[in-house]
Amino acid sequence: MTRKIHRNVWLLSLTSFITDASSEVINPILPFFIASLGGGATAIGLIGGLGESVASLLKVFSGYFADKSRKKRPFVIAGYGLSASLKLLFTLATSWTHVALIVPLERVGKGIRVAPRDALIAHSTPKHLRGKAFGIQKAFDTAGALLGTLLAIYLWFYLGLSFQTIFVVAAAIAFVGLLPLFLVKEAEHEPQNKLSLLGNFNALPRNLKWFILAAAIFAVANFSYMFLILKAGESFQGADAILFPLALYAFYSLVLSTAAIPVGNLADKYGRKRILGVGYACFALTTLGFAFTSGFLPLLLFFALYGVFHACVDGVQRAFVSDCTHEKNRATALGYFHTSVSVAALPGGLAAGMLADAYGLEATFLFGACLALVAFVLLEFKVREP
User: Fold this and answer.
1) Which of 62-76, 89-103, 220-234, 330-344 has the highest mean pLDDT?
2) How far apart are CA 141 and CA 143, in angstroms?
3) What global pTM score does this model have?
4) What is the pLDDT of residues 313-325, one digit of tens each?
5) Domain 7-185+193-382 has what CATH class?
């Protein structure tokens, strides 16, 4: 069996690295930008949910048409290019409602690119290496996030640049991320998908449908990272209430980028379902920790655990879906998965924000832990290893 990772995986991972560096120049400071425009916890929860939900339907359509045409690369290039262009809209925002419109627009690009990109990675990689391949993509993605977070701290704290100037820098980086995509090779000898969109859903294995349900329930629990940053800010005073949460977020990115490839290898060796169960459990422990602890050292521990959770879940879920499907409708199946998870993020984000405003952030974290437990039980008892 070949042990070599296809160059498509490395090129797509390089684009993920640069693009996430761009996004994470914006994301860590976004809750503070929203607050500066008059938005509270409910606004942050709404915006976090909208970012994943409004454009989510595009994921299944882009996956379906990518399967139909047997062309993945044009969808990937269009998605990354659109996201880079729409980042410039952040410079025009003068109220938090503008941000609530801009975030889902910017995520339209992600809705177009994600399913075809994941299908291209899966099609370029034999099954026994898919966990590693998706782990590489996630590691590059998160290493870019770490670089972007550190760059955000440097631009904001040490250079004192305005939010608007930082947004322009982020957009410029995103355009650089398009360059590796022009070296990606289209998947060869891929059979054409002749089913309708509904026919593709009906053709999905029953086991995969149970998994998508479990993943969607977990997505309701997995509210925006912005709540973790807000919680961390409560443990510090003055400028430290912004600097230390951003530093902790950078530490989380470091843990995730370091763990993603080893965890992908473990998923290849011991099975996807087992690693996903560990990830769901790590998230439940993380949210319980945020609910009942404060202070720098406990926060350091739980931000690390948050990184381990993402390493166990993000790439492994996509490998699981890829294993359950035939190559002719793999992008569509990944689109259904991503759409289900993204749609679930909106009520999850709203519920998290409303609970935080009404009862405090502790209630938000307890809500996440309870739903994560439900998803874990469903995964363990209804989903089989493909």
Assistant:
1) 89-103
2) 6
3) 0.75
4) 988 998 898 888 8
5) mainly alpha
